[in-house]
Design a protein that fits this description.
Elements: H1 3-12, H2 16-40, H3 44-51, E1 56-57, H4 60-65, H5 69-72, H6 80-127, E2 139-140, H7 144-157, E3 162-165, E4 169-172, H8 173-186, H9 193-213, H10 217-231, H11 261-274, H12 281-291
Antiparallel strand pairs: 1-2, 3-4
Helix pairs in contact: 2-3, 2-6, 6-7, 6-9, 6-10, 6-12, 7-8, 7-9, 8-9, 11-12
């Protein structure tokens, strides 16, 4: 199978992570190629004006005129390495999260993280005096808040999951997420203060999403309803609907080909309390089947 065939195959699998990565890369390539063309005709100023229609402005007056920026800013990047590292994080930990929670939750966590991070960025620029000088012209762009939400969600769901850092050092996900957030927190007094704040907002939303996914039906059902609008762009059916249930013993349904929703709820509840490693092989198999429906 060729490289292009491999990409086509992955896109046809309707994997949320692959589709989010693909959309980010597509937007980046389109505007990168446009930069070359507009530069040749000495018209970069025109392209900059076009791009600024998709960013998230910190100033509330600008935001009111361009509210769609809270979504579109997540798919624009400032340079090759900006998108490279964001997409690597998203792919590595997004695929892990997708394996246990499926497409629907991945979409929700990414968009909720981006939106929450964006609003925290706007809030900070309009509240803290240090940002007042640059408030009028400041804007945010990049998938980092959504990506950090994925990272934090994966670490909250599977805190003891171990990855080989640089292929050498075994590190648990909880420490990777904590160090990432700490780096952003300590680097707020920098040229990218707004970006750091948005990252922290995204990470916080990912953490809260998993922590309260099993205990707050109203919140998660509202998120589920909003996310169905965005999923329409990807034509993706929900994988599974999760509700919190009281602690109980998992009793497997007699229908082996179709996991019982109550069983799935109980398994996810067990993960939130004890981690994925506490599941039995049969529970892991049932959760895997549920994520594929």
């Amino acid at each position: 199978m060729s490289f292009l065939d491999d990409i086509k195959y992955k896109l046809t699998q309707k994997n949320a992570v692959i589709r989010i990565v693909a959309l980010n890369v597509l937007v980046y390539l389109v505007f990168a190629l446009a930069h070359v063309l507009f530069w040749l005709f000495q018209a970069n100023d025109i392209l900059s004006l076009v791009e600024k229609n998709f960013v998230l402005y910190a100033n509330l007056s600008n935001f009111i005129l361009q509210p769609w920026g809270i979504i579109t800013y997540m798919f624009f990047h400032d340079g090759f390495f900006h998108i490279l590292f964001n997409m690597l994080w998203l792919y590595w930990l997004g695929m892990l999260l997708h394996e246990y929670l499926g497409n629907t939750r991945v979409y929700q966590i990414y968009f909720v993280g981006g939106i929450f991070g964006g609003f925290l960025y706007m809030f900070s620029y309009n509240v803290f005096p240090v940002f007042s000088v640059n408030l009028a012209d400041s804007y945010a762009l990049g998938a980092s808040a959504g990506v950090l939400a994925i990272v934090a969600a994966a670490a909250t769901l599977l805190p003891n999951y171990t990855v080989m850092l640089f292929g050498i050092f075994p590190v648990q996900l909880r420490y990777i997420a904590l160090v990432s957030v700490l780096i952003d927190l300590l680097n707020i007094p920098s040229d990218n203060a707004g970006g750091r704040i948005a990252h922290i907002g995204g990470a916080l939303s990912g953490f809260l999403f998993i922590k309260y996914l099993y205990t707050n039906n109203g919140l998660t059902n509202a998120i589920h309803s909003v996310s169905t609008f965005f999923k329409g762009f990807f034509k993706q059916k929900p994988v599974m609907k999760v509700h919190h249930k009281a602690d109980k013993k998992v009793n497997f349904s007699a229908k082996a080909n179709k996991p019982n929703q109550a069983d799935v709820d109980a398994i996810l509840d067990k993960i939130s309390k004890s981690g994925y490693e506490s599941l039995s092989p049969k529970e892991k198999e049932l959760l895997f089947k549920a994520s594929k429906e």
